[in-house]
Amino acid sequence: MSDPIIEYKLPLYLPISNLEKRYKLFKLPNGLLCFLISDPTEKIASCSLTVATGAFNDPENMLGLAHLCEHMLLAGGSKEYTDPQIFHEEIGKNNGSFNAYTTAEQTTFYFEIPNTNIMTSNAQTADKIGKSTLTNYSIGKKEGDSVLPFEKLLRIFVSFFKAPLFKRSLIDREIFTVNSEHDGNKTSTMKILYHATRLLSNKRHPFHRFSTGNLETLSIIPRLEKIDVQKRLKKYFLDNFTVNNNMTMCLKGFDSLNLLTKYAIKHFSDLGSANVANNNDRDRKSTRLNSSH
Ligand SMILES: [Zn+2]
Fold first, then answer.
1. Active site (catalytic) residues
2. 5 domain residue, yes or no
3. Per the structure, how many domains does the chain have?
4. Could you say which of 13, 163, 210, 283 would form a disulfide bridge with 79 (CB–CB 3.0 to 4.6 Å)?
5. CATH number of the domain within which 96 lies
6. Cα 36 to ligand 1 centroid, rounded to whole Å
7. Residue 90 C-alpha to ligand 1 middle, in angstroms?
8. Positions of the chain with pLDDT lower than 50, given as ranges
9. How many CB atoms lie within 10 A of CB 50?
10. CA of 81 relative to ligand 1 center, distance in Å
11. 130 lies in which domain range?
């Protein structure tokens, strides 16, 4: 039997401006920490996912791999949604936005859409099925039914972290994007000062290393060393996106805590199962190897 959901009853000291908001903090059986914020006055529905991994986990011969992995997760398609454009199109259709960033020890992905789209879709759906409440029909719909835009986006978004494809044909494009970000950084005084601090730091600490990645570290060196970049991306993902106690998810919107909890359970409960299966398999293989001599 799987572990139950663990809810944390923490005292949250809220400013008067936040008294309308309702919060819930709990851990799903897969170890994903979930923080929900429900606010009837909220005009945006949003979701973010943060993983406790970043540039400090870059392999020595592929600096920038964590950053490239962040790019590829949102751009490289998933087993469920093989066309990587679907997410971008859905976001565009709903006037939303998305982004992601990688720091030394953290990688964060997020998207948001205005509530107006949800309200419109709700009104249409409510007309069709003769209901007028906002919360009765978004859970449990089959694919192809009138799934609300936010839930549809949630499903696509989370699929990237369940079974990402890291399509080989898109890797070079994302390396170029990472390289242009690095080129842009070269003209930013703040970034230059940051890199100067990095260069002055202890050479044995990972902070000293280059972390953004560029054509040299992600394309030229791997080619010279015959490194398969796609394999490295998959390995980095399986090693570091383990979910159990290293990932946090936040949902925020005008929906009730009850509905946001249902979204969390429905879409995030099986997150990490591919990594667990793979790591178990790897553990078994290494046990076999160790016991063979
Ligand atoms: Zn980037």
1. 70
2. no
3. 1
4. 163
5. 3.30.830.10
6. 27
7. 21
8. 120-145, 286-293
9. 18
10. 22
11. 22-53+77-165+241-287
